[in-house]
Amino acid sequence: MERLQKVIANLGYTSRRKAEELILEGKVKVNGETVTELGTKVKISDTIEVENTILDNNKNYEYYLLYKPREVISSVSDEVGRKTVTDLITTSERIYPVGRLDYDTTGLILLTNDGVLTNKLTHPSSNIEKTYIAKVEGIVSGYAIKKLRSGVLIDGKMTSKAKVKLKSIDKKNNKSLVELTIHEGRNHQVRKMFECIGYEVLKLKREKYANLDLRGLKPGEYRKLTNKEIAVLYSMVK
Ligand code: URA
What we know:
The protein is α+β, with helices and mostly antiparallel strands. The protein has 6 helices and 17 strands. The protein folds into 3 domains: 2-54, Structural Genomics Hypothetical 15.5 Kd Protein In mrcA-pckA Intergenic Region, Chain A (Roll); 63-125 and 212-236, 2-Layer Sandwich (Alpha-Beta Plaits), CATH 3.30.70; 129-209, 2-Layer Sandwich (Alpha-Beta Plaits).
C-alpha cells in the first residue's frame, strides 16, 4: 500500500505536491469514489482517476529522449524498410514517437507508451515550445526575420507568432543559421515557413522540446526521462 499522492506522482501524472492539491480539490477518485484525504493508502489493483483520466497503474510506462539522426523515420515501422526511431531504442515495451521530425531533420524527439501524455503534448492547444536551428541557403534579411516572427501563410493558414533569431551569416558560402521557437506542430512547418519567404532549408535540427534539450547526447543516443521531467511535462499540458 502506498500513499495516493505518491502513486499519482510515480505514474508520471504530476508532481507529488500538485497531486496533493488535486486530492484536496476533490479531483481524484479511487475505485469510483472521490477521495479528499491526503494520507489515503492505495493498492496497485485500485482504479485511480485524476481529473477524469484513469491512470493505468499496471502498465510499465517508459519515456525516452532520443537525439534523432538524419535518415531515420519518426514512426514505429516503415513499408519501404527505412530505419525508424524505435529501431534505435532497446526496450520490450511498445513505445512510439510523440509527434514527428522529418526523415532528414535531426534532434530531440520523445518516445513513450503513455498515450495520455502523448495526446496532451500533440494536441494543437498544448502550446509546447519547440526550438529549431535551421541552416538556410542565402543571407536571411531583417525583413524576412520580422515576417517569420509575426507569422506567414502556409497551407492557407497563418502561423502563430514565433521567436526568431538570426544566429550567424556566412557571406562566403551564402548561408545563414536561424533559431526559431514555435509552439505549433504543423507538417514540415519550419521548412514551409522559410519556403514562404523565399529561402530553402538545407539542414534542420530540433534543439529543445518543452523543458528538455539534447545536452550530453550525440546523434543516435538516447536516455530515459527522470520522474521530475515527466511531471513537468504533465504540468505543462494541464
Ligand atoms: N518543421 C519541419 O519542417 N520539419 C521538421 O522535421 C520539424 C519541424
